[in-house]
Amino acid sequence: QVQLVESGGGLVQAGGSLRLSCAASGRAFGDYFMGWFRQAPGKEREFVANIWWNGGTYYADSVKGRFTISRDNAKTTVHLQMNTLKPEDTSVYYCALGPVGGARPGGYNYWGQGTQVTVSS
Predict the structure, then answer these.
(1) Hey, what's the torsion of the CAs at 72, 6, 68, 42, to 10 degrees?
(2) What is the pLDDT along the chain (121 residues), one digit of tens a residue?
(3) β-strand 67-71 against 3-7: which pairing, if any?
């Protein structure tokens, strides 16, 4: 059974940094896309970033230049380094895994439970 476990969320002041991690287990993930989405109360789930099986990355315009996605060599853990955080980054952040990837939730088969990120002004 595939399992994704996120960690690293918390409360930070505007301008600060946080690093999220997502550990995947349950199958081989070498050819899958791993991504991060976020969802604020009353809003739709929003794409943040993803990383491809070959190491390529893609970011939402709202986080480009501030967030960096990376994965370990075993391709079982993905990280999201978030710098220069803004209050509008406040959301529950979800890790996702799937064979299609892309910026839509439908491209991912597996999801973590989410981790709260709160940025105070």
Answers:
(1) 160
(2) 889 999 999 999 999 999 999 999 887 677 889 999 999 999 999 999 999 888 899 999 999 999 999 998 777 899 999 999 999 999 999 999 998 989 999 999 999 999 999 999 9
(3) unpaired
Query: Tokens standing for 101?
Result: 């990837």
Phi-psi region of 65 (alpha: psi -120 to 50; beta: other; left: phi over 0): left
Which residue type sits at 114? G
Look at the block and give the residue holding tokens 């946080």: 18
By three-state DSSP, how is residue 22 classified? strand
Distance CA 65, CA 81 (A): 11
Length of the chain: 121
